[in-house]
């Protein structure tokens, strides 16, 4: 469990460190979640490779969220939320996320994950209604 907490903290720190010192730069905020403080993520276009990396990280966390007890699903939910927020902050195409999720989750698993991932807003139903799901 400590390893998972360290991974989440590292992800938040890395996201917080992105961007320059420009005070006018727009940000998205990852709200606090239990043990984890709110974090601001700089917004702006990203390379296709970075978008794929964020989508893959999200899909791994979503898949891990479904692991049976005694996994710490809260950690995976927080990690998925951080990666999803970073994906949005970089203006990545939803199709990239759709492909990453489709590689890891069955339609039933995706519906189960989305039932707990309310932070995805309108994107969740959009993923669930995709042709491959």
**End-to-end Cα distance:** 32 Å
Largest sheet features: 2 strands, antiparallel
Please provide the ordered H/E string of secondary-structure elements: HEEHHHHH
Q: Which strand order spans the largest sheet, edge to edge or round the barrel?
A: 1-2
Output the radius of gyration: 14 Å
Q: Name the overall outline.
A: globular
SSE class: mainly alpha
What is the number of beta strands? 2
Mean pLDDT: 78
Helix content: 55-70%
What's the number of helices?
6
Query: What share of residues are in beta strands?
Result: 5-15%
Fill in the keyword field for this structure.
single chain, 133 residues, two-stranded antiparallel sheet, 6% strand, disordered N terminus
Walk me through this protein's architecture.
The protein is mainly alpha-helical. The protein is 58% helix and 6% strand. It is built from six helices and two strands. It has helices spanning 2-16, 48-65, 73-89, 94-104, 107-116, 123-128, and strands spanning 27-30, 39-42. A two-stranded antiparallel ribbon has the order 1-2. Helix 1 (2-16) packs parallel to helix 3 (73-89), helix 2 (48-65) packs antiparallel against helix 3 and helix 2 packs parallel to helix 4 (94-104).
């Amino acid at each position: 469990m400590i390893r998972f907490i360290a991974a989440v903290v590292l992800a938040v720190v890395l996201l917080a460190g992105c961007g320059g010192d420009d005070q006018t730069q727009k940000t998205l905020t990852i709200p606090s979640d239990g043990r984890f403080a709110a974090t601001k993520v700089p917004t702006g276009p990203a390379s296709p490779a970075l978008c794929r990396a964020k989508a893959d990280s999200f899909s791994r966390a979503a898949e891990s969220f479904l692991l049976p007890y005694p996994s710490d699903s809260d950690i995976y939910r927080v990690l998925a939320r951080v990666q999803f927020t970073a994906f949005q902050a970089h203006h990545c195409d939803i199709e990239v996320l759709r492909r990453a999720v489709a590689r890891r989750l069955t339609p039933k698993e995706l519906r189960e994950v989305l039932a707990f991932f309310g932070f995805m807003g309108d994107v969740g139903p959009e993923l669930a209604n995709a042709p491959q799901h």
